[in-house]
Specification:
signal, Lipocalin, 21% helix, 6 helices, Thioredoxin_ResA/DsbE_sf, Glutaredoxin, eight-stranded antiparallel barrel, AhpC/TSA, antioxidant activity, 429 residues, 3 domains
């Protein structure tokens, strides 16, 4: 009996050891190789490539960086299972959800996390070591034209739509650039010119975008833009070095007879904050109307946050009023809280309501209309509105960005130097 028992125990131990080996093998953690990758989304049956770089060998210390021309956007990686990754798109309520296959390639989807849009997704695959975007090295076709320069873009639409301006740079087959609109810019786009066709794509965290076009015999361009989860638009491009957008300081204005702004909104803790609160009296106040879902808004915040830190001692306050994709304070506390954390915001953040221009216009009743997120309003020490800027001009726009920053600093220096009414009253007594 003893021999049989010992034999049984040895057999059981051996079986457990073998099973343990299989379990360990089955649960082996798979992580993407360190280096540059090429991903491809499928959007409306179109293939939209994007590039990214992985640094680090495990999720705890890894960085995932999207590559678009000279631009890099960095994200953290979370390992949700031995073969599964979750890459949150920073302040945007969306994520890349991916599976790492044993041969090393990735499959997954770009997934909206907005409560009302959950279920909306774009599938993608990704392969390691492929640094090109559209065309494999050695397979380029000589371009029939050089598209470098400034282009005026007309949108083909049933309703009147403001023209746009593209700034392109072509070196050989490689094409990079940006599209500027009255509400902001596209961020940097990257692509190629092949024969009489061109293509550009961009993916920086928010919705991916694809532009495909043809060079016509008269050197104009015909193109379509596909905005991922959104609609496709047709575009006509004409080279025009004098093309300009409308003045962003003249698009949004106060209604006739108005010279001040007034509002009250809850902060992220639910406390009501008013522009008329003593905290803002006698100070220059910068009001930015934004949304965490809006890339130009986050770019504008990335500019304003460090500027405010460096200048708040000069008698300046700032207020961000966020309009989010769900009309719920708890949801806004999460999304706007992520914005605060990401950019180290030290000024007040309030919740305006649902992301809707009509609603924002109603809540900022002194304005003629809300044309864009972001909209930035500067209020002087005397409480009057000094300036309203529609949209945001990012760094990729070159001279336009430099001009914006130069005017910003010059104007703010001027408004800050003005004496507050209370100070003048005391001095006169």
């Amino acid at each position: 009996m003893k021999k049989n028992a010992i034999s049984l125990l040895k057999g059981t131990a051996l079986t457990l050891s073998v099973l343990s080996g299989f379990t360990s093998q089955a649960q082996q953690t798979l992580f993407p190789k360190e280096g540059v990758w090429r991903g491809v989304f499928t959007i409306n049956e179109q293939k939209v490539p994007f590039n990214f770089e992985v640094k680090g060998h495990e999720a705890e210390d890894a960085t995932f960086s999207l590559i678009n021309g000279t631009r890099r956007d960095h994200f953290h990686v979370k390992q949700t299972a031995p073969d599964s990754l979750f890459i949150k798109m920073n302040t945007y309520d969306a994520a890349l959800v991916a599976k790492v296959h044993p041969d090393g390639h990735l499959t997954g989807e770009y997934r909206s996390l907005v409560p009302s849009l959950r279920g909306n997704s774009l599938p993608f695959t990704a392969e390691y070591g492929k640094t090109y975007r559209f065309v494999e090295p050695g397979k380029d076709i000589a371009p029939t034209a050089n598209l470098s320069g400034k282009w005026e873009i007309k949108l083909i639409s049933k309703e009147p739509v403001a023209n746009q301006v593209a700034l392109l740079e072509q070196k050989g087959n490689k094409l990079t650039g940006v599209i500027m609109t009255v509400v902001g810019d596209s961020r940097e786009l990257e692509g190629t010119v092949q024969g009489n066709e061109f293509v550009l794509s961009g993916f920086t965290g928010p919705n991916p975008v694809l532009i495909k076009g043809k060079i016509n015999e008269d050197k104009t361009l015909s193109a379509e833009i596909d905005r991922g989860l959104y609609v496709t638009q047709k575009l006509e491009w004409t080279k025009n070095k004098k093309a300009e957008l409308p003045d962003p300081y003249a698009l949004t204005q106060l209604k006739e007879g108005q010279n001040k702004l007034d509002f009250e909104f809850p902060d992220l803790n639910g406390k009501t904050v008013k522009l008329s609160d003593p905290k803002y009296k006698g100070k220059v106040v910068i009001v930015e109307i934004i949304g965490t879902w809006c890339p130009n808004c986050t770019d504008q915040t990335a500019f304003l946050s460090p500027w405010f830190k460096a200048n708040k001692h000069r008698g300046v306050e700032a207020i961000a009023v966020g309009f989010e994709q769900k009309d719920d304070l708890n949801y806004a506390k999460y999304t706007l809280g992520k914005l605060k954390e990401k950019y180290g915001i030290e000024y007040d953040i309030l919740f305006g309501g649902l992301a809707d221009k009509k609603l924002a216009s109603e809540k900022f009743a002194a304005l003629n209309k809300m044309m864009a997120f972001p909209t930035t309003i500067i209020i002087g020490r005397d409480g009057t509105v000094k300036q309203i800027h529609t949209g945001y001009t990012g760094e990729i726009t070159g001279k336009y960005y430099k001009s914006y920053v130069k005017k910003w600093n010059k104007d703010l220096d001027k408004y800050i130097a003005e004496e507050a009414p209370a100070t003048r009253d005391v001095a006169a007594r």
